[in-house]
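Possible regression after last week's pipeline update?

I re-ran a chain I had predicted before the update to compare outputs. Posting the input and the new output here so someone can diff against the archived version. Not blocking, just want to make sure nothing changed silently.
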Amino acid sequence: MRYLFSQRLKRAEQLLKQTPKYRIQIQEIAFQCGFSSAAHFSRLFKQHYGITPRDALNAAHSADSGAVRSTGRARTFREKTRTTITNLD
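New output (post-update):
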């Protein structure tokens, strides 16, 4: 089940990055990725990435070109579920 959620969350992250901020609702992304509840989706997303889907959407579309990105080094399980928001400048 973890693998399935992981794949759904990856798809959701892609949609959050690619979709214009003003054209999508978090609930719509949740349903498109196979989650039956936006609350459940948001909870799992925050657990996996360390930020809420709304914050990820805002970061991906912010004026300073911020994006959600993982750190890429060997990490513990708890650290693995978190990401950092970095500036791509």
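Follow-up from reviewer: compared with the archived run. The chain has five helices and two strands. Marking as no regression found.
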